[in-house]
Amino acid sequence: MKNLLLNSFIVILLSSCSLGQYGKLKKTASTPESIPHSIFGENFNSFLFKTNIRVYGKEYSGLLVTKQMEANDYRVIFTTELGMKLFDFQFKDTLFTLHYCVPQFNRAALLNTIQKDIEVLLMNNIKTHPSSSYIDSKQTQNITKIDFGKYQNYYFKNVQSKELVKIEQAKKSRKKTTFILSNYTDGFPNYILIKHHDIKLKIELNLLKK
Fold first, then answer.
1. For 190, what's the count of Cα atoms within 13 Å in the CB-facing half-sphere?
2. Are strands 73-79 and 58-70 parallel, antiparallel or unpaired?
3. Where do the domains of the chain lie, and which CATH numbers do they carry?
4. Whole-angstrom distance between the N-terminal and C-terminal Cα of the chain?
5. Neighbours of 30 (CB within 10 A)
6. At 22, is the pLDDT very low, low, confident or very high (cuts 50, 70, 90)?
């Protein structure tokens, strides 16, 4: 009897751990509208952000421009306000190209992290991955989970405004990165905050021009 109770307790404990913070979400039927669309839209010229990157105690401020070259082809350039280039990325379909990077950012782990952050915002090719839909316990947010295999992205959309207010990237239900999107104007967030929970990296984007 004791062994049965112990085994039952272990099963419940493991189930709770595997569900993590997302265990209270209620599954709902998926619709075509459930799949998130790029916050930049399908076709755009460019977006300019006043940008602040804090990484391991150091701070870099400047301007970040996101420019669409053609369908599924994006150029992302970060410069100082005086025009000195800090990094220059290109995202084309699933191909990433590093055109330029100053030594301060030229570390494989840091570059890979910033690359993945930008890919989350671009939402390029997410329709090719399995998805499922949920609603939170208060029924104020619709959540779409996109499964990328090694990790999952959760997209939180306000039920009333239909605005995408948060993206969480998780691994084994453990939150790794949070993206906050706020101050919407004409369907676009004027402020984006990217905060990592396992490394000391925070990126703030304030829209200047689109």
1. 6
2. antiparallel
3. 26-209 (2.50.20.10)
4. 67
5. 14
6. confident
